[in-house]
Description:
The protein folds into 2 domains: 2-173, Rossmann fold (3-Layer(aba) Sandwich), CATH 3.40.50.620; 186-275, Pantoate--beta-alanine Ligase, Chain: A,domain 2, CATH 3.30.1300.10. It has 9 helices and 9 strands. The chain has helices at residues 7-19, 35-47, 75-84, 95-98, 117-120, 124-139, 151-163, 193-214, 220-232, and strands at residues 2-4, 24-29, 50-55, 89-91, 143-147, 169-173, 237-245, 260-268, 271-279. Strands 1-4-3-2-5-6 form a 6-stranded parallel beta sheet, with helices on both faces. A 3-stranded antiparallel beta sheet has the order 7-8-9, with helices on one face. It is globular and about 55 Å long. 37% of the residues are buried.
Amino acid sequence: MKIIEHPSEMQVFSNTIRKTDQTIGFVPTMGYLHKGHISLLDAARKNCDQVVLSIFVNPTQFGPGEDLSVYPRDLPKDFKIAEKAGVDIVFTPTDNGLYGKNYQTYVYLKQLPNYLCGIHRPHHFQGVSTIVSKLFNMVKPHKAFFGEKDYQQLAVIRQMVLDLNFDIAIVGCPIVREHDGLAMSSRNVYLSDAQRASALSLNQSLKSTQQYLFKGVIDTETLINKAKDLINSQQETKIEYIRICHKDTLDDIQTVNEDCLMALAVHVGKTRLIDNTILQLEK
């Protein structure tokens, strides 16, 4: 496994690989790897000749008062996990290497960031789309793999790739959950035992909503209120949003008449967690 820090070296490596007609699979992360990341690396390994993992805690996607300074980091552990997962290259650029002096260029999407997480984190997706486009230009992958837990992020990246004509296939991979149902996240490490127990209400609310839907409850206000009641019954939970919306446009819907997205963000203590599911109208 090779470790590359400088963007120019990454580009040279990718150009060399492309000349041999090998395919490059790319998994961009902010590190502190867990089983969710490993599932993306496994998918890349199965579908591509060379696997590139990037580790970069991107400052432009964090807002004021968010956890940039304390975001969990453990590069030595990440390197061990990456090597075991069969990664060929770990790309570890620095802030200065990606956002040098007088940096001025950002990528902005007009519509998709104006829903869900984007309402509460107004600069987040500009930071995401900018860093991902920069990484694409350095890694030059044929395929890039993203987790469906960050559903809105995946939608934003797919739209960006379409709009800017990136010649890259975007592959969405299923949510990976802990044994108790909690969606895998690097931020789970922040949770105390009691908070973790409360955090299980996120997935429980998604499951219960699906069951209500199977029973014929199709009014989204009713479904959302039931989910709110469940989550609010737990200690240290504060709901940021719960939405049932069109799975492509992310527009809110009032009545479920086709498969749709249910997405939520909840603060458990000081930890912000997200989760989602595709609600099915019929079994």
